[in-house]
User: Fold these one by one.
Assistant:
Number 1:
Amino acid sequence: MKSIKNRTEGTDCCSPSPGTPNKKITVKQSSMGLFGLIVWYIIYKQLLPFSHFFSYDLLGLEKGSHLGEAIQFFVYDTPKVMMLLTLIVFVIGILRSFFTQERTRKYLAGKRETAGNVMAALLGIVTPFCSCSAVPLFLGFVQAGVPLGVTFSFLIAAPMVNEIAVILLYGLLGWKVAAIYLGTGLLIAIISGWVIGRFNLEHWIEDWVQELRSAEAVVIEETLTWSDRIDRGREAVRDIVGKVWIYVVAGIGVGAAIHGYVPETFMASIMGKDAWWSVPVAVVVGIPMYSNAAGIVPVVEALLGKGAALGTVLAFMMSVIALSLPEMVILRKVLKLKLIAVFVAVVGSGILFTGFLFNLII
Amino acid sequence: MEIKVCGPGCSSCEKTQKIVEAAIAATGVDATLTKVTDFQEIAKLGIFSTPAVIADGDVKSVGNIPKQSDVEGWLSA
């Protein structure tokens, strides 16, 4: 049973009030989940042997040949990434049913800067967010009195530090690259937000937005059972995996072609460590490009595999995801142009710094 | 009855609109459906996460896609 009630008191999101029926997870639900996970793992482990069997035995392609390598890469990576994606999107979908934008807003409204920037960046990962909800969310933060810099930490982290990006990086490039991306993405969001906060730019928010401070937000709190939360997870899988699978397959296809056919050092001259100018170029090229994380990661993998430097590739990926032209156009409705320029400059500098840093130390 | 669906027009907002349309058709309630897409107007209604559904001035859901059975309940109330 799902009931909607007006929120009257501050009930904790994670501790269901005792005596409410159906709010606890049942034995059946948890054993089904465990069983599903075991089946998932068994299939996942078979993917690599299967891809070898498929390309080298079934199709009779030669090991080490261009076509053989490309086909094996494609047959292995596509189901691998799709399986990882499905699992993570499902888990995050359930997790997100605990974190609503209302709760995040309420929580951040009472926070000071610095600690607020850190919390905002972390909440940016788990709070449900899409680029078209950016403006109402921004308005809600302003209305609730969340400091501007803290709001920006959230707005930067939400698209950039994205579970799909992290899981794809892990699946295709290993946990180190995924951890570096996660860590630097969070740092950029925290520091950029903090810096923007220091500038005191509240007067560069559009005037009509300022007037909202006196407005009152309508909040409707849902009471969700575990079945509802599991449904949310399923919906997320249907929605996100249904939407991004085509990018994943296309991305891996491009990756496979580069993997099999483009010479190892092809990218080294233009995107290698020695080409210092490649980092700023990667950032600038990335701004008008708009892709979701799912589409860009396989391309990143291919570039890295062919000698492009990690810092340059990270900078490119972050710029594509975090600095998107369509989002800026939407934000223009609530921010004056100067503030958008500051936002791009601060985040762009953060990405540049990350790019140079990793080219230097790795 | 006057139903408003608030949202800038992303996929979740369109889904919500379709669900409301389906609920109106299913219940046969005499209702007019208007879309509110302007951010300023949405904010003035006190709504800061979309999609949101308003029935006769009463905010029924905010920040999520409602179930059709719930919408039918609001319509027949």
Number 2:
Amino acid sequence: MQVKSFQLFPEAASTIAGQVDGLYAFLIIISAFFSLLIALLIVYFAYKYRVRPGVTFHPEHHDDHSIGGMVLEIVWSVIPLGLSMIMFVWGVSIYFTESRPPADSMEVYVTGKQWMWKIQHMEGAREINELHIPVGRNIKLTMTSEDVIHDFYVPAFRTKADVLPGRYTTEWFQATQVGAYHIFCAEYCGTKHSGMVGTVYVMSQPDYNAWLGAGSGEGSMAEQGQSLFNQLGCGNCHASVINNQNGRCPNLVGLFGSRVELKDGSAVKADEAYIRESVLYPQSKIVAGYDDYMPTFKGLITEDGMLKLIEYVKSLGAKNGTQNSATSMPVQTGEAVPVLPRGRPQGKMIAPPAPSPGVAPPAGNR
Amino acid sequence: MITATAPLKEKKNYINAEAGLKSWLLTQDHKRIAILYLIAVTAFFMVGGLMAALIRIELATPAGDLLDSNTYNKVFTMHGVIMVFFFLIPSIPAILGNFLLPLMIGAKDLAFPRINLISWYIYMLGGLCGVIVLLSGGVDTGWTFYTPFSSTYSNGYVVLTALAAFINGFSSILTGLNFIVTVHRMRAPGMTWFRLPLFVWAHYATSIIMILGTPVIAVTLFLLMLERGLHIGFFDPAYGGDPVLFQHLFWFYSHPAVYIMILPSMGVISEVVSTFCSKKPFGYTFIAFSSLAIAVFGFLVWGHHLFVSSQSAYAGMVFSILSFIVAIPSAIKVFNWTATMYKGSVRLDTPMLYALGFIGLFTIGGLTGLFLAAMGLDVHLTDTYFVIAHFHYVMVGGAILGYLAGIHFWWPKITGRMYPEGWSKIAAGLTFVGFNLTFFPQFILGYMGMPRRYHVYPPEFQVFNVLSSAGATVLGLGFLIPGIYLIWSLKYGKVAGPNPWGATGLEWQTSSPPPTENFEITPVVTTEAYDYAALAAREQMQEVTRLG
């Protein structure tokens, strides 16, 4: 990171940064114009019309309803209104670009926790307070929090988004310059809020591949998700091969991104939030044709583990999931039957750092 | 120009009408209650200012060297809570509004004098809760109390702090209610709505926000207390709540609350600019109605605080466009004040210096608000020092400069004494320079990406932080000096006389300080507001009568 002791402007290192800077420049010009206009008028009037010995003034009394007065009032209402509508449209158009990740984005998962950023790559690499990404690729972050609200902010990319407990938010960017840039938590999150910082390393594609190749040795996120799936015994009920219609619970193959008909007649899109809700609060949305059979896994799975499970479900394919080999068949029946919830999970969903990635520690079933 | 005439005999006024502490603590005189507020609000301002000083000293270096992180978080929280709930919201309405509203409309008192006194006691009870929090270890949620941090994770005295703000809210509601009824029912004969001084219009608009908005924050804080104390899930997803719901409820009040803080200041500026130009404010009706427009539209823009909080983009668009629209009435006011100076007869006494400072700084504060209303830009700027700079331009450059303009303008009326003009001009100058040095660098810091509420920060941000801390020292001096000379003036200041500035309002037609019943004879209003020609004619008549 090129740390300069004095700068007026942050580095611009994403495709969106130039657009944000452009709007900023426009607003500065407008603001400077009006601030100076008002300041100069005040100074000029204060001098020109100052009370001084030997000069008597008979201030002109202005009638609100005079034509000249009305014209002025209209002029100085309509011009600012017009300018502000330009700002509005410009701001909205940038926001829509900022808030909609392109379909071809590379996915990275982020979990915020007092006071660290935990990052998981689909290929299985995990890092803390660091994010390695290739230059020139659209990167989509899917983010959640284990405790309070955080906010993932990269000033050089001119973007941020809140990271909320119990919910997934997204943020995307395409880095344009190799380098290292600050990550800040921008939503106040408690004692070490200002320590919840990190670095984005933007690398050339070959460097990134080499970094990724060093790997974690734990397999891809989907593979880790699969072993978690087996460990928690999900496969005992959820069939995940296409021809198994006898499962007590819905088939997960081709689920992600599809439209799910619910028992109450409504329908829902199977996105990350739906999967998360179905694992933690299974009774809240019952799929049509099934019974309220599944127990809650609240307290049994960490947020990081949940992201792995989601990645596994995604890997089962959208719509026609036939590319999945039989290895994703549920196995190990009888080994890890999920233990039904032990009373109410204690307070928060957070769990201390899990020894085995994904499964919450209070799993005293083995 | 009027000078003090015959030496004041020990004429009865509201100050010497009765003696003894009890006569003050049980008073129902709006003027005395205003003085009670003045003392209490000033005390809170000093505590809040001390917190600001600690923040700026800490931030002079990138490392956390003066305070530990927990203490720093508590300090900025108390700075925010005290300045917002115990200084900015009550400052102008409860002190100047209380003192002046009945005088300006020719009434003997507010409509409900006992409720007025109760409001002060409620304020003090809320303040007491705040002081207990402060003394017993503080709270670290930030003044915004965002959940689930505040409801579940914070280790501070969240419930007591929320209770302090909750109780204090009732004081606001009762004051607002009192003002609205007073303006409707207590106007002197001939004081029609469009003869009301603009200060009264501004307070009327403020009162509407107070009685409609404050109950919402009270409910929100109550839900927060329930969740924290009894684990009833409203906001924490662990209890089945929604963390963003809190932000909606909080800003539904707290954005309009910004207008509670700035509208009364705007009322002061309208009075001061008119008086020191000896000219009717340009566009009286536009200024009056823009206050009401701000009060109404102010309720519809809260979502611009949530552009990065997972709010729907379409909801965001609605809040964004409404936020731009609410800026227009403010712009109208600025242009009208400036136009008032055109062909006026301008005197640069201290209140006018503060008022001109207000116009300049509020203009910058308002314009930088547009940066935050523009969604695409707000994503980068929100939760950074840009936001801090923006709202301090509005709250300090606007609300506090307006408050100081008002205090200086009406000091002769409140106390019967003049403050030293030389010192007060020095203080006004120091405040203006110190303010800009403190907060302008923070715009740059914000765009560079320095997040707010950071105890420790990367070294590249230090230069502007040092500038800001240096500015804060000058600003502190600018606030301290008036504190000294205003107290000095109580005993040694020149006797002011009823109308030292040649102002037109009814409050200037009674003696300084006013008698307990405000006017010896109920005034009858026969002219428009700000009729300087009528004032000159009346004074000429009085002169003739006196000499004849």
